[in-house]
Write a structure and sequence with these properties.
Length: 395
């Protein structure tokens, strides 16, 4: 479907059905440089391989803003979704409330990075005097699309702080969640990082790492361009088996991973455990120039502490070695606290079409926001760092 609307400011908005329909040059000019997810490659590949396509309940309706000469000034990735998997706004209870009141929640409209709980800009707009009007035009077009298609709601998952402020000022409701992020305070190497822990917590981490070292498994770090494409079926099987054990959707195929590895190169990072040369566990991550993002874990057996080693400790060591400022290992997980991951409040924004449901959800989100702020503060008290360092940091 292609839709075009002329605007008074000589901007036009059109809707395109795939990321590949947008010129690569526009992605490169409007996306943050070096970002592993906000780029033509990531979105195009996962759409083409079906991970964010109709067969999995995702229908792309990306918005493109152009000036009168045809130059693209802004993008807003959008999907019409028939479920709540892979968008990380945790709205299953909202859908249930709609059903109980005899209303239809799905399909809904989503601005998000599919299968990726990473905050960042969602309105991709060229800098300059027109930036504010381009953002507003994209926002208006999204709400217009929602009304025209008869959808229940539009959600913007994990926008940047700038986007969140704009969306809140435009009347969208704001929800809150807590993630756990590792922040690089300049510990030098992993030993230096552990020196910031209390003695008991330090002993626990060392014991976990020693268990892995004594297991006889070989641990290696590979970037996307260092992984043989023929190995992806084995690595993908680890991820798929683990996802299916927890009744999650393993939407990424081996071919999808292989194409992502080829396209992203060193922006993909895999920590692999091998037994006799064969992979038995993998943590597939991605990186920008500033951060490492943990995404997909898989394991074929029960290896003591291996999950902590591949999903947390290897990533921390990688960030220290490569000078990355933070490590975001994915959504949820209080067990990350004792490894030094700080509770961090993140936000999403929601436009609810029905006034009655909007008022109901507004009251719910007001209570949720205070509860999560309290939880984040309480959780931070359980970080493993020495009291003298926590006191000096607070001062």
């Amino acid at each position: 479907m292609r839709r075009e609307t002329c605007l008074p400011s000589c901007l036009s908005i059109r809707t395109v059905p795939s990321a590949s329909a947008i010129p690569r040059q526009a992605w490169e000019e409007l996306c943050p440089a070096g970002h592993p997810f906000l780029n033509a490659d990531f979105l195009t590949i996962i759409e083409q391989h079906g991970a964010a396509a109709r067969e999995w309940g995702w229908a792309a309706r990306h918005l493109v803003a152009s000036d009168e000469s045809g130059s693209i000034l802004g993008l807003l990735p959008l999907y019409v979704k028939t479920h709540s998997h892979g968008d990380f706004i945790y709205d299953w209870s909202w859908a249930a409330a709609y059903r109980q009141l005899g209303r239809q929640y799905y399909p809904k409209l989503m601005s998000c990075l599919p299968h990726t709980p990473v905050a960042g800009p969602r309105f991709l707009v060229a800098a300059g005097p027109q930036a504010a009007s381009v953002r507003q035009a994209l926002l208006d077009a999204a709400r217009e699309l929602l009304v025209g298609a008869g959808l229940s709601s539009w959600h913007v998952a994990l926008p940047s702080e700038e986007d969140a402020r704009m969306l809140q000022n435009a009347g969208l409701l704001i929800s809150h969640d807590v993630q756990f992020h590792w922040l690089n305070t300049g510990g030098g190497d992993f030993g230096g990082y552990l020196a910031s822990f209390s003695a008991a917590k330090r002993r626990k981490v060392r014991a976990e790492r020693r268990r892995v070292q004594e297991s006889g498994l070989a641990i290696e770090t590979r970037h996307g361009d260092q992984i043989d494409p023929a190995e992806w079926p084995l690595l993908r099987a680890l991820y798929a088996d683990t996802f299916e054990k927890f009744n999650n959707h393993a939407v990424f195929s081996a071919a999808c991973f292989a194409d992502l590895a080829t396209a992203l190169g060193r922006r993909m990072v895999a920590f692999i455990a091998r037994d006799g040369g064969l992979p038995v566990a993998v943590a597939i991550c991605f990186r920008s120039d500033e951060a490492l993002y943990g995404r997909y874990w898989g394991c074929s057996g029960n290896y003591h502490s291996l999950h902590f080693e591949l999903c947390f400790y290897q990533g921390i060591a990688y960030c220290l070695q490569h000078g990355l400022a933070r490590f975001e290992p994915g959504a949820g997980g209080e067990h990350k606290l004792s490894r030094g991951f700080t509770p961090t409040v993140v936000h999403s924004a929601h436009w609810i079409a029905n006034p009655e449901m909007r008022a109901l959800l507004a009251r719910h989100l007001a209570l949720q926001g205070q509860a999560l702020a309290d939880y984040s503060e309480q959780a931070a008290a359980h970080l493993p760092f020495r009291r003298d360092l926590q006191s000096s940091s607070a001062a």
